Amino acid sequence: CVLCGRTDDCPEKYGEKRTYVAYNLTVHYYCLLMSSGIWQRGEEDEGVDGFLITDIRKEVNRAARLKCNICKKKGASIGCVAPKCKRSYHFPCGIQKECIFQFMEDFRSYCWEHKPVQKFPDKESRGTSQCTICLDLVEQLPMYTVLKSPCCKNAWFHRECLQYQALSAGIFFFRCSVCNNKDKFQKEMLRMGIHIPEKDASWELEENAYQDLLQCYQHCDIKRCLCKKGRDYNEPDSKWEIKRCQCCGSRGTHLACSSMKSWEQNWECMECRSILAKSGNYSKQKKRSLATSEKTDGTTCLLEEPSPKCPRQSPGSPRSFLLQSPKIMCQNNLSPCSHLELPASNRVTMSLSPLMSNRNCSLRKKHLRKQRREASNILKELKLQVNPKTTRLNINAENIWNSALKGFRQRNFSPTNTIEIKFTNCKSRSKTETSAASKHHFFQLLMLHLQNSSLFEGSSAKNLSLDFQAVKENLYFEAGRMIAVSLVHGGPSPCFFSKTLFNCLVYGPENVKPALEDVADVEVARTIKMIKYANSLSGLQSAIHDCYEFLAAAGCIRPITSLCDKNMLVNDILIHHVIKRIISPLESFRQGLKTLGVLEKMQIHPDAFSTILCHKPERLSAETICDLFTIHSSSDVNSADFWIGYLQDVESGESVVTLEDILLFVTGSFSIPPIGFDPEPTIKFLHIRYPVGNRLLNCLELPITKTYEQFKNKMEFTIRNTLRVERE
Predict the structure, then answer these.
(1) Where does the record place the PHD-type domain (predicted)?
(2) Less Cβ crowding at N or C end of the chain, within 10 Å?
(3) How many helices (H) and strands (E) does the chain have?
(4) How do strand 128-130 and strand 456-457 relate by DSSP bridges?
(5) Domains of the chain by range and CATH?
(6) Average per-residue pLDDT in the chain?
(7) Using CA atoms, how far apart are residues 31 and 28, in angstroms rounded to an integer?
């Protein structure tokens, strides 16, 4: 390795060792990451994971002048970040001397004297306990080789065991092995020098890792099998076709061995039959079908066995229209027909008068405004984390996504730094545009790109899609992080989240019930509708038959004995397609939204954040603009009246400019960001010839005129021409 000088190839300790023959270069990944004088200036596919070859050579030359405080050899590229500490060392030497390397944020390194340590209460008993990973004994002492869980009182680990587990589990599955806590546990382990790679778990990446689970049981378990070709012989569409137990699916029989005339006949193995008999459900099954055959509105819902005349399934398919388990029905406390819709004659309908409708609409708008104000106050509170230190992002507006991704992934980027935007294709940007306006324009372009990207699906209200390449490149995490940063740094909100996606983020996917509107795939939506609107048992079975492969792949095969079972089947399909299918992108997206504490606030104040994430911003009105601006220096009462009257004219269409033009003229933004403007917009009435929009201070300086016509003409002339020149 050009940085540490060692030939060891130990990925667990030093990271992957890579050799580049063309450049005559070999380097350990961790040696490169932790070196003090180098950062990622390239794309991910440039150089060594973004570290340019020229930069690596410069770092090698810099380190060649520094002596390692441990082995006393030259080439010490890593320095302790503690103030006034001048120790330098190689990465492997630091490991031997028990230094701490933090694989997060600025990739800080601490020498053996200044390294962070875990604090233990004096009252806490000392002794030995089991490492909850390897189960060997571990001493309960504050040592480098021993780490204590921050979330469990008596959970202790060997450092080496934790590091191996982190490398295997990755950021999505690495958690406390005792209480399953993730956030608190990961934060402490990163602080103590455990490297948690941003990748999926190793067991999720193995090809065909779960192949055994996809095999169907094909064996005749009848005591006296009649088939001369053996118990494993299965010939579809014949008496030697194997039928599996409708309850457990782990026992089978040839049709002939159980004297079954039709494949559609139900069959239970002896074990399941005895369980059902003991529970009393086996004998009650037929009684329940009679009880549920009567309904108050005259509709019938019989739990009938499929007739031998029902349409036959395609040859060779291991399919069955399974009976609904009585156990499932009892657990849900539902009658088999409880999900059926009442006929139209039994529904009560009510129409609101126009007056009542307008009143409700007005109340709803007031409620949304109140929630938006609450969201604005919460975001302002989160913005207190942002410090004056500036991070500049060079953005190409024509390639907004890649340039934003590069900026967010650069080593010196921190969400808590003040962001400054520099558009590289400056010809398309106005020279008069302020830093705040450039930043707002950048986030506006970025949110628009995300809305139309492959990471989301749907028309207006969007859910996460499943893009395997995006999962591999960790783009869902970056998208979540970008949205969080936009909200806190004064950018627009996405405004396109579906209610289902929002609820998954706030309440957890296990507590959300998706709807048909959440399905963006036309074919899947058509399949669901076929099942949902089937009006007979045979029609339902035919619909299931047509889409059996899809249902099997989705794991949605369930017992079907009556028409009303379709509702639970539809629910299973929706949960699989909308939630379970995208569980990995969702978890990654949630991690990104945790940036700057946004997700935590979303979970505490769901109503407030729902208004800015799931609803489009309220259309600008004269009242909104009037409330937005604070009037200063108004010695002339007429001027204030002229201003209010002009806003009303603009709103009613009696002007050549729009309310959005006025806002853009003053602030550089077409819309009001969720967090509001900083500084807050103000108005000054001065003895000047024409209006002036000071975007640095968000201040509108207006001329004092004798008549309203003069005021209006000056406003329209100035705003229209200023914006036209900017656009040109």
Answers:
(1) 1-115
(2) C
(3) 27, 20
(4) unpaired
(5) 17-110 (3.30.40.10), 128-204 (3.30.40), 386-616 (3.90.1750.10), 622-726 (3.30.2410.10)
(6) 83
(7) 5
Q: How far apart are CA 206 and CA 581, in angstroms?
A: 18
Task: Using the structure block, give the residue that is written with the tokens 């705040």.
Answer: 436
Dump pLDDT digits (tens) for 508-538.
999 999 999 999 999 999 999 999 999 998 8
Phi, psi of 405 (to 5 degrees): -65, -40
Q: Rounded to an integer, what distance in angstroms lies between the CA atom of residue 213 and that of residue 358?
A: 57
Q: For residue 204, with 0-12 CB atoms within 10 Å meaning exposed, 13-18 middle and 19 or more buried, which class applies?
A: middle
pLDDT at 363: 73
- Can you state the angle between helices 659-667 and 435-451, rounded to 10 degrees? 130
Question: pLDDT value at position 360?
Answer: 60
Mean pLDDT in residue range 624-633:
85
Please report the sign of the dihedral spanned by the C-alpha atoms of residue 293, residue 245, residue 267, residue 277.
negative
Of 368, 476, 406, 491, which Cα lies nearest the Cα of 441?
491
Encode 140-208 in three state secondary structure. Answer: CCCCCCEEECCCCCCCEEEHHHHHHHHHHHHHHHCCCCCCCCCHHHHHHHHHCCCCCCCCCCHHHHCCC
Structure tokens at 672: 């009001």
Residue percentage of the chain with pLDDT more than 70: 84
Amino acid occupying residue 408: F
Q: Letter for the amino acid at 431?
A: K
